[in-house]
Amino acid sequence: MTEYETVIGLETHIQLNTTTKIFCSCKADSWGDPPNSNICPVCTGLPGVLPVLNRVVVEKGALLAAAMQAQIQPVSYFDRKNYFYPDLPKGYQISQYDMSLARGGYLDVPMPGYIRRVRIHKLHIEEDAGKTKNEYGQRLIDFNRCGVPLVEMVTEPDLRSAEEVVQYLIRLRQLLRWIGVSEADMEKAHLRCDANVSIRPRGAEYLNPKTEIKNVNSITAVRDAIQMETERQIREVEAGRRVEAWTLDWDEEAGVLRKMRSKETEADYRYFREPDLLPILLDEPWLEQILAALPELPLARRSRFIEQYGLPDYDADILTGERSLSDYFEAAASAYGGDPKRVSNWLMNDVLRMINERGIPAGELLLTPEYLAEVIKLVDSGAVNTNTGKSLLEKIQSSGHSPAEIVQAEGLAQVSDSEAIRNAVSEVLAEAPEQVAAYKSGKTNLIGWFTGQVMKKMGGKADPRLVRAALDELLA
Question: 192-242 pLDDT, tens per residue?
């Protein structure tokens, strides 16, 4: 049988996290708000109104273009994209066509054993349309999303599997949050993805007719929909039928694809210049001001963490997954001054759990990077044992007090008195003759139980090394 490969290009719509919409002063992010509660004559397309461009939309769009290695155009234009849909009140969408904000660029996507470079064909800014909903036999329309600012990025057909698409979206979401231009939450429609899918014999260079998958609202659903459509196209070709250029709707509840319509071409939209808006002129001073806010990007920082701090790939991946966590690690490693891997271990094993439980970024913890470094130093010096050090993290987060203040106030300093520890061990062994007999008969894993009993008797403050030494001596 013929072996096929999948050819995939993506159209991603990214909602910029501006306060107001792209052409009016209505609230931009209306997730959870009542329908039609954030609208005005401009975004509902009433006669006689004029759009006014939101400057921040251009700045965030240009920042994203720079992060994608795209060529930012000094002059770009808005265009009218004409089509009829019930939630498009003007009968057209203000978008960009042949002279958009940026061209080219790419995003490198690390995959097991290789890196997939996904080239960007076009990057432009535009307004969003509204939302329709079918309920009780009626079509309901919510105009809240009309005029919400978007960046649309169209990739070249460079992706070759559903898994590569998943990793691309994960890396894109990471980048959007990292540079602070979008919340990139697919479930809240901050990040939407349409996938253009076709198949061809493996090794072929030509492109076959593609189908477009729309209305996918999670990364998992993107994977499922692409895999399902790939399998369908293979069945069509193997049966001697031609794959038609359809637009497909993903039904999340049923987990199936349904034909919506035949796929439109650019000619169907009858683009022409938007007469109510001037060109965007991005002069050098403005562009320099925008680019000054561009941070070190995630993959670059990941590489630096491996090289500069000697971290394993796994640690570097976790610590650069979110910018706030990455900054936290660097600050803690600097304050600690010792082996960065030790800081990484504490951060990934204990601090990350606190972050996930509270649902806050690392930068909002009362447990500052400096406090974390201080706790690790206390454990290293023997001033407190490891268990006490871990409990200190929660105490610091709850109170905001420094580790030294809490240790002194609660008397948490580690007991290193060999005689006191030996006496506690003797008491534990005297109270547990059955366990002592079992240990001596070969159940040596009971050493952990004995250690726990001694720590409990001494309020968790005993030096574990001295406890183990005393147990070894007395049990022998």
Answer: 999 999 999 998 999 999 999 987 888 999 999 999 999 999 999 999 999
**Residue range 457-468, pLDDT digits in tens:** 777 777 777 777
pTM: 0.83
Secondary structure (H, E, C), the chain: CCCEEEEEEEEEEEECCCCECCCCCCECCCCCCCCCCCCCCCCCCCCCCCCCCCHHHHHHHHHHHHHCCCEECCEECCEEEECCCCCCCCCEEEECCCCCCEECCEEEEEECCEEEEEEEEEEEEEECCCEEEEECCEEEEECCCCCCEEEEEEECCCECCHHHHHHHHHHHHHHHHHHCCCCCCHHHCCEEEEEEEEEEECCCCCCCCCEEEEEECCHHHHHHHHHHHHHHHHHHHHCCCCCCCEEEEEECCCCEEEEEEECCCHHHHCCEECCCCCCEECCHHHHHHHHCCCCCCHHHHHHHHHHHHCCCHHHHHHHCCCHHHHHHHHHHHHHHCCCHHHHHHHHHHHHHHHHHHHCCCHHHCCCCHHHHHHHHHHHHHCCCCHHHHHHHHHHHHHHCCCHHHHHHHHCCCCECCHHHHHHHHHHHHHHCHHHHHHHHCCCHHHHHHHHHHHHHHCCCCECHHHHHHHHHHHHC
pLDDT tens across 45-82, in order?
A: 999 999 999 999 999 999 999 999 999 999 999 999 99
